[in-house]
Amino acid sequence: MIRFEIHGENITVTDPIRNYIEDKVSKLERYFTNIPEAIAHVKIKTYQDSRSKIEVTIPLKDVTLRAEERHEDLYAGIDLITSKLERQVRKYKTKVNRKYRDKGREKDIFAAGGDSTSDESEDNDSDNEIEIIRSKQFALKPMDSEEAVLQMNLLGHDFYIFTDAETDETSIVYKRKDGKYGLIETSIQ
């Protein structure tokens, strides 16, 4: 069962909006055999030009589903988000099922049915196969996040991986779409 955390910025999340989001996103449950305590994090933001931005993130045990959409009509944006999430689930389901079928065992995260689209039709996607065309190795230098941002900018990259000097863990800095920077800190579970 998916629980919802819906937050609005510059908009009041009314019961009709909440119900529409819950009805649409809950349809994803049919693709899974077991969703223990899944929480859908939904953020809605409206801008002065009356456009809306909808973000939905659903962290699950084996996969994190995420979609973002900007649209003039909030309800149409929610429909587009649902379509994106369904495509992600079907694509991931196909890959996981194929991987485990090749290894001779079944993975039980996905329901046997769930959608009218067959696994074979997903095979026709042009980006269905993952092909690593280049591999690099490099030593991670201990540094702080500010030095990592400077290194990233010097290299002209959008992200930079480094060892955090304080925590001795691997971290990643990245450039966001708004021109600011983000930091991802890792930990071993």
From TrEMBL:
Gene3D superfamilies linked: Ribosome hibernation promotion factor-like (3.30.160.100), Sigma 54 modulation/S30EA ribosomal protein, C-terminal domain (3.30.505.50)
Which portions of the sequence form the region Disordered?
107-128
Coiled-coil intervals, chain numbering: none
Keywords from the named record: Cytoplasm, Translation regulation
- Localization annotation: Cytoplasm
Query: Compositional bias (Acidic residues) at which positions?
Result: 117-128
Residue span(s) of domain Sigma 54 modulation/S30EA ribosomal protein C-terminal: 128-183
Chief subcellular location: cytoplasm
For whether the record's keyword set contains Magnesium, the answer is no
Provide the function of this protein: Required for dimerization of active 70S ribosomes into 100S ribosomes in stationary phase; 100S ribosomes are translationally inactive and sometimes present during exponential growth.
Assembly: Interacts with 100S ribosomes.
Tell me the protein family, please. Belongs to the HPF/YfiA ribosome-associated protein family. Long HPF subfamily.
**Know the name of this protein?**
Ribosome hibernation promoting factor
Q: Which gene encodes it?
A: raiA
